[in-house]
Amino acid sequence: EVQLVESGGGLVQPGGSLRLSCAASGFTFSSYWMSWVRQAPGKGLEWVANIKQDGSEKYYVDSVKGRFTISRDNAKNSLYLQMNSLRAEDTAVYYCASQYQLRKFDYWGQGTLVTVSS
Amino acid sequence: DIQMTQSPSSVSASVGDRVTITCRASQDISSWLAWYQQKPGKAPKLLIYAASSLQSGVPSRFSGSGSGTDFTLTISSLQPEDFATYYCQQANSFPFTFGQGTRLEIK
Fold first, then answer.
1. Is residue A1 very low, low, confident or very high in pLDDT (cuts 50, 70, 90)?
2. Interchain CB contact of A103 with B (< 8 Å)
3. What value does the mean pLDDT take over residues B54-61?
4. pLDDT digit string, tens, across residues B85-106
5. Of A61, A103, A109, the CB nearest to B95
6. Apex CA B98: angle with CA A16 and CA B13, to 5°?
7. What residues are paired with B74 via a beta bridge?
8. How far apart are CA B103 and CA B33, in angstroms?
9. Dist. CA A101–CA B106, nearest whole Å
10. How near does any CA of chain B get to the CA of A101, in Å?
11. Rounded to whole angstroms, how far apart are CA atoms A59 and A61?
12. How far apart are the C-alpha atoms of A100 and A29, rounded to whole Å?
């Protein structure tokens, strides 16, 4: 059974940092693109970043470029999102999602809530 | 960035009804469109990819069509478990973008 389990969310002050993790199991992690997708409270979905199977390519939405960094460790079947210079508008549930084929989000984790507030 | 616009924003329907949701892209995205279902407090679930391909395990009452800029998701006979919010997503180019969502409510 495919499982994606996010962790690392919480309350952080504006300008602070947080590192999210996503533990994958039940599939060949190293064969998949992986993404982070977020959802602000009561709002729609927003793709944040993704990373190629071997980590050689990374893409970001403009609003997080230079502040967020996506990475992965295939030996640990884990995906990460380092978030720096956090803003109130980054408040959201962050989901990790797998992409066997780049053009669809096959499986999703349950999400982890990040709240940026003083 | 490619803008995705769904219509309607919300729709009320009854069990057994046929429902169609429309998604329009601001530019040609070929067939690179996916549809997701999300229930309150849960993660989205992939229903349709490449505009018309049914994801494994998804009931056949769900179908998708379209290409270019105009796409539709059809639920042929609504079941109680289908009441949820539906999102389209373009996968033609970065940044991947989603529609604003269509809330399907019980009439």
1. very high
2. yes
3. 97
4. 999 999 999 999 999 999 999 8
5. A61
6. 125
7. B20, B63
8. 19
9. 34
10. 10
11. 7
12. 9
Distance CA A57, CA B22 (A): 33
Strand, coil or helix: what is A23?
A: strand
**Residue in the block written with tokens 């505009």:** B51
Structure-token pair, residue A98 = 């797998």
Structure tokens, A94? 């962050």
Instruction: Read off the pLDDT of each residue in A34-61 and give the average, rounded to a whole number.
Output: 97
Which amino acid is residue A35, in one-letter code? S
Amino acid at A103: R
The Cα of B67 is separated from the nearest Cα of chain A by a number of Å equal to: 15
- The answer, for B32 touching chain A at a CB cutoff of 8 Å, is yes
Give the tens place of pLDDT for each residue, A67-92. 999 999 999 999 999 999 999 999 99
Beta-bridge partners for B90: B33, B97
What is the rounded CA–CA span in Å between residue A26 and residue A29?
A: 8
Q: Tokens 């690392």: give the residue.
A: A8
Q: Residue A98: what residue type?
A: S
Report residue A51 CA to chain centroid gap: 10
